[in-house]
Amino acid sequence: MLYARAFTFLFIARRVAFCSPANASIETANNTFKWPTVEAFLNDSILTDYTHDILLLDDGSEGMRLILEERAAVSQVLEWFVDRLKSFVNNREFRKEAFIKVLDYMQEDLNNVIERILEIPTSVNLTRQLNFAAYFYSEMKGSANVLSIYGDNSIEIRLVRWIVYIHLTLLSLFNLHGIPDPTTPGYIEIIERLRRLLAFWGSLFSELRGVLPPVATVFEDKLSQAEKVLIYLEQHFFK
Predict the structure, then answer these.
(1) Pairwise CA distance, residues 145 & 167, whole Å
(2) Which residues are the signal sequence here (predicted)?
(3) Which of 9, 54, 56, 143: CA 20 to 30 A from 89?
(4) pLDDT at residue 7 greater than cutoff 90
(5) Is the dihedral of CA 86, 87, 91, 93 positive or negative?
(6) What is the pTM of this model?
């Protein structure tokens, strides 16, 4: 029953226009959702400017029951959404073509979830969950775009591709609610291996000459984001 309710508003009507995570927002009558940066995601601050985070006490009323059910339904949809994103990534490969085929549909699904969350009293946990789903999706979309544009086999482009894979792999180490998941098989070994690779490839890229400025910008941006996520994962593990 709840599972069916969770997907009702996704598949009955797709009423929100396509919205690019890179530079756009979603608006309702009273609130606006801005796409997250890595800093906002890791600082848990993406929704603080508008989220009506209300501590709700279940008084047994019909209205309260509906709000709690709505929260649970939206959370379930976000779990499904993040799980779908993870299916396109492992620590050796990003299935770019498969992701691109469903990109528009996933964008519409996420837009619908965001619009719904903006209309209900939300919670810290739901805020975090949405934050992670939106960031993961926007980074996967951006990565697919980068890999489509830069397809040659020059050393600098190969390094860009590897940094993209590392960044997405690090994001796959979070659970469906956007919390680092140390129970992932090989969690710390994966982090240690990726740290060594980031350091090596970053050093190698810095020694290259004649790299086009747009390529250098992409590499440095992806490297910076991957390093921030990796540090966050390490800190969570060693707390």
Answers:
(1) 15
(2) 1-24
(3) 9
(4) no
(5) negative
(6) 0.78
**Of 118, 115, 117, 137, nearest in space to 20 by CA:** 137
Give CA separation, 130 vs 41, 67, 107, 208, 217, in Å: 10, 17, 13, 39, 28
**How far is residue 39's CA from residue 228's CA, in Å, rounded to a whole number?**
8
Q: Which helix (H) or strand (E) holds 231?
A: helix 213-237
pLDDT at 213: 93
List all residues 6 or more positions away from 192 whose beta carbon is below 8 Å from its beta carbon: none
**Angle, CA of 73, 83 and 135, to the nearest 5°:** 90
φ, ψ for residue 143, nearest 5 deg = -65, -40
**Whether 26 contacts 97, CB under 8 Å:** no
| CA proximity to 18, closest of 139, 104, 136, 77 | 104
Give yes or no for residue 26 having a pLDDT over 60.
no
Question: HSE-up of 109 (CA within 13 Å, CB side)?
Answer: 21
Highest mean pLDDT among 17-26, 37-46, 150-159, 197-206: 197-206
* Sign (positive or negative) of CA dihedral 77, 81, 87, 91: negative
Give the whole-angstrom CA distance, residue 149 versus residue 41: 26
Greatest Cα-to-Cα distance within the chain, rounded to the nearest angstrom: 68
Q: Are 13 and 203 in contact (CB under 8 A)?
A: no
